[in-house]
Design goal:
The protein is mainly alpha-helical and 225 residues long. The protein is built from six helices and no strands. The two termini are 50 Å apart.
C-alpha cells in the first residue's frame, strides 16, 4: 500500500466506525424517545383520570355541603322561631290572653320538636369533631369544610403530579426527536464523506463527528433533566 493510500484508508475506516456509532446512537435515542412517549401517555391518562375523580368528588361533597348547611340553617331558624313563640306566649299570658298564650306555646313546641329532629340528623351536632363545646357556641364549620374537601384536595394533588410528569416526559420526548434530527445530519455527513474526495472527506467526517458529539451531550442533558 502506498504512503498516500494509507491516510485515505484510515479516514475511510474512521468514517465507517463513526457511521456505526451514529447508527447505534440512533437506535438508543429512538428507544428512549419511544419510552418517553409511553411514559407521557401514561401520565396524561392518569392526570385525566384523577381530574375526573376530583370533579366527581367535588360534586358529591358540594351536594353534601348544601344539605348539611341547609339543615343547620333550618335548625337555627326553628330554634329562633320557637323562642319567639315562647316569648309571645309569656307576654300573652301576662296580659290575660290564656287561649292565645296556649296556642303560642303549642306552636313553640311544634317548632322545637322540628328543630330537635333536624339536630338529630345534622352532622354539626352528631359528630363530636364539629359539635360546639358550649350550648351557646356555633359548630366548627371550618373543620367541617376542611375534612369534607380533604379527599378532593388529595385527588387534585395526585392529578397535579401526574400532569407535571406528563409535561416532563413530553419535553424529554421532544428533545429526543431533536437529537434524532441531529443524528440524521451526522449520518448524512458520514455518507457524503464516504463518497467524497480525501480532502472533502475529512471536512465531512470532522463536521459529522462534531454533530455526533453534540447529540450525545444533548442526550445526556435530557436524561439528567
Amino acid at each position: 500500500m502506498s504512503a498516500s493510500a494509507a491516510p485515505t484508508e484510515r479516514w475511510r475506516t474512521l468514517v465507517v466506525l463513526l457511521t456505526m456509532a451514529g447508527t447505534v446512537a440512533v437506535s438508543i435515542v429512538a428507544g428512549l424517545q419511544a419510552d418517553a412517549d409511553i411514559r407521557a401517555d401514561t401520565a396524561n391518562r392518569d392526570s385525566q383520570y384523577q381530574a375526573i375523580r376530583a370533579s366527581g368528588e367535588l360534586f358529591r361533597q358540594g351536594t353534601r355541603i348544601d344539605y348539611d348547611i341547609a339543615t343547620l340553617a333550618a335548625l337555627t331558624k326553628d330554634r329562633q322561631e320557637s323562642l319567639a313563640y315562647e316569648i309571645t306566649g309569656l307576654e300573652q299570658e301576662a296580659g290575660g290572653a290564656l287561649d292565645s298564650a296556649a296556642s303560642a306555646r303549642a306552636r313553640a313546641a311544634v317548632v322545637a320538636a322540628r328543630a330537635d329532629r333536624a339536630q338529630a340528623l345534622s352532622v354539626f351536632f352528631t359528630d363530636p369533631a364539629y359539635a360546639a363545646a358550649e350550648p351557646d357556641q356555633l359548630p366548627n364549620q371550618q373543620a367541617y369544610l376542611e375534612d369534607t374537601f380533604a379527599a378532593a384536595n388529595e385527588m387534585v394533588e395526585v392529578q397535579n403530579r401526574a400532569a407535571d410528569d406528563y409535561h416532563r416526559w413530553s419535553r424529554k420526548s421532544d428533545g429526543f426527536v431533536a437529537v434524532l434530527t441531529l443524528l440524521a445530519v451526522a449520518l448524512f455527513m458520514f455518507g457524503l464523506a464516504q463518497a467524497a474526495s480525501v480532502r472533502t472527506r475529512r471536512t465531512f467526517t470532522i463536521f459529522g463527528a462534531l454533530v455526533l458529539i453534540v447529540s450525545t451531550a444533548r442526550v445526556a442533558s435530557i436524561l439528567l433533566a
